[in-house]
Design a protein that fits this description.
Blueprint (H helix, E strand, L loop, with lengths): L4 E11 L4 E6 L13 E5 L2 E5 L1 E5 L6 E6 L5 H5 L5 E5 L12 H4 L3 E4 L4 E10 L4 E6 L3 E5 L6 E5 L4 E4 L12
Parallel strand pairs: 8-13
Antiparallel strand pairs: 1-2, 1-7, 2-6, 3-4, 3-7, 5-6, 8-9, 9-10, 10-11, 12-13
């Protein structure tokens, strides 16, 4: 089952003394995170709706700074550090593949031989193609290329079937 919320960023710092926060954006381009309103910010285990009332993108990187309604001091902003930012899935257009990267995080990965390789912990953008980071007994970096390495994605079962050997291209855990 697809989650009803999609995580699009994380508050990772404070900016100034008037309650602005630094935000690491998972969107591409970075500024697209500002296109989605309201934000749902996870505070003390609960999702809280918050409005961005002002923002700007410092030069370079994956960060923006934002001023959230009701957050008017450095102390209040500091309380938000480490909080995920999400939006409701229905705020996004349907993806051509039927899922977003966030849907793949936590999926079990098994190969055609029935061996469990682990769970998806992350996706990495390499330029040529995206790569699944899979952690299990061993770690694997599996190119996210349909019909070559990725054979099936079953979000209902939270499982990805791959054309990959358990001893193939292990990632160094050190």
């Amino acid at each position: 089952m697809k989650p009803d919320k999609l995580i699009i960023g994380r508050i990772n710092g404070v900016y100034g003394v008037k309650g602005w926060v630094k935000v690491y954006s998972h969107t591409d381009p970075v500024g697209n995170i500002l296109s989605y309103q309201p934000w749902l910010v996870k505070r003390q285990g609960q999702w809280v709706e918050m409005q961005v009332i002002d923002s700007h993108a410092p030069q370079g990187g994956k960060a923006i700074v934002a001023h959230l309604k009701g957050i008017d001091s450095r102390e209040l902003a500091r309380d938000l550090m480490g909080s995920d930012i999400a939006v409701m899935r229905d705020q996004f257009p349907e993806d051509d593949d039927g899922f977003y990267w966030t849907d793949l995080i936590g999926c079990d990965v098994k190969n055609q031989q029935g061996e469990q390789l682990g769970r998806v912990t992350d996706l990495v953008e390499t330029g040529a193609h995206d790569v699944l980071r899979v952690k299990g007994e061993r770690s694997h970096l599996i190119p996210f290329v349909f019909d070559n390495y990725i054979l099936d994605v079953d979000l209902e079962q939270q499982q990805i079937l791959v054309n990959w050997q358990a001893d193939q291209y292990e990632e160094d855990d050190q």
